[in-house]
């Protein structure tokens, strides 16, 4: 079994504001293994995005521990957030500049990723000249630019129309798996979680805690579109729906 790369151990989080306290998480425990793709679903407002901030060390828990084995993180947001005034290539290089990793070797690696995943002919274009799917692909390559160990995906497909979303999910999942990255996905979409993840965690309403964890039993099949056609897909959907709304 691969090593544990991230662990939440009885984590609690309380926000303090002028209006009082908000209990965001309580007795939150789970772990993620190296190379694993984990999806997290839960009711609206339960604190799923907060969980990513805790994982990356952007927030400190009020109780318990978050251990990440010293790994590095890359964050992919709901929107691509590409800068309109920079070319695609310069957008891809941005994390290298911010983290002071902007070397010839690093740029070569990023260009190689762009070529490998179909963006080589668009590097001198501007974001407005790309389709929504191409923009999300560029956003993922930008996230991979610094070669992070773990990708934190905060509903990265939610701004896309349904058909584009299906295709981009397939693209992004394929890239993550081929690059051997660990991924933690936050999503409201049950079907998306089932089709993409090795394991799905279900959170309770706030304060969030894990109420169920399921290993997806699709064998070696990791293509999200093919998974959606499997006989056991509807069974998983029904179970997760009940757990979310029970």
Give structural notes:
- The protein is of the alpha/beta class and about 250 residues long.
- It has two domains: about 1-70 and about 150-160 and about 180-245, Rossmann fold; about 80-150, no CATH class.
- Helix content is about 35%, strand content about 25%.
- The chain contains eight helices and nine strands.
- It has helices at about 50-55, 90-100, 105-115, 130-145, 160-180, 190-195, 225, 235-245; strands at about 5-15, 20-35, 35-40, 65, 75, 150-155, 180-185, 200-205, 210-215.
- The chain has a six-stranded mixed beta sheet with strand order 5-6-7-3-8-9, with helices on both faces. A three-stranded antiparallel beta sheet has the order 2-1-4.
- Helix 2 crosses helix 3 (about 105-115) and helix 2 packs parallel to helix 4 (about 130-145).
- The chain is globular and about 50 Å long.
Q: Measured on Cα atoms, how large is the radius of gyration?
A: 18 Å
Average pLDDT, all residues: 91
**How many runs of DSSP E, i.e. beta strands?**
9
List the helices and strands in order. Answer: EEEHEEHHHEHEHEEHH
For the record, the CATH class of the largest domain is: Alpha Beta
Q: Assign an overall shape.
A: globular
Low-confidence spans: none
The CATH topology of the largest domain is Rossmann fold
Number of helices: 8
Structural domains: how many: 2
Looking at the overall shape, the CATH architecture of the largest domain is 3-Layer(aba) Sandwich
Indicate the percent of residues in helices: 25-40%
Strand order of the largest sheet: 5-6-7-3-8-9
Please give the alpha-carbon distance between the first and last residues. Answer: 33 Å
Q: Major sheet, described briefly?
A: 6 strands, mixed
- Beta-strand portion reads 25-35%
Write the CATH homologous superfamily of the largest domain.
P-loop containing nucleotide triphosphate hydrolases
Class by alpha and beta content? alpha/beta
